[in-house]
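Protein entry
_____________
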Amino acid sequence: MNPSIETRILKDCVKRFISYKQLGDKTLDVLPEEYFHVQPNPESNSIAIIIQHLHGNMKSRWTNFLTEDGEKSWRQRDEEFEEHPTLSTAQLLTLWEEGWQCLLETLEKLEPAQLHQTITIREEPLIVYDAILRQLAHYPYHVGQIVYLGRWFLGKDWQSLSIPKLKGASEAYQTAIAAAQKK
């Protein structure tokens, strides 16, 4: 028997969230500490601010996901966008992990039928699968910012997280994928 579309959607959403977390992990792993709090300009967010925001959003959205509004009264969203230079890299990485853990544990506990339930975020009713898609668009947006900043900070020392920007790299990647699928 084939799994239901709902079962596949949940599995695929978890897989996609994990893949974006891994892109962020790989970037954070190679960045020296001095870059976590650097803002390219006063209007831009540092990596630290992005991590703070993701943590706050994930904890708020995914704690008691099915039973409480996704915008919790204890969340201090405005403070997420303030630079806190005393936060160490270790503390920031703890926030990063806590947020992702809350998200992934919640998603992994969802039952396929729950995708059709209605929840609220900021008192707006949303079907569960739409709320998941909303966050699947939101988090990669910020992970992309982290990756871009990492690439910008490291310049020529940056190691590509996907297909390198080199002549022939796309063809080599495609050849490697085809060879792996034949095994």
The chain has a mean pLDDT of 95. Helices lie at 5-30, 47-62, 77-80, 89-109, 128-154, 169-182.
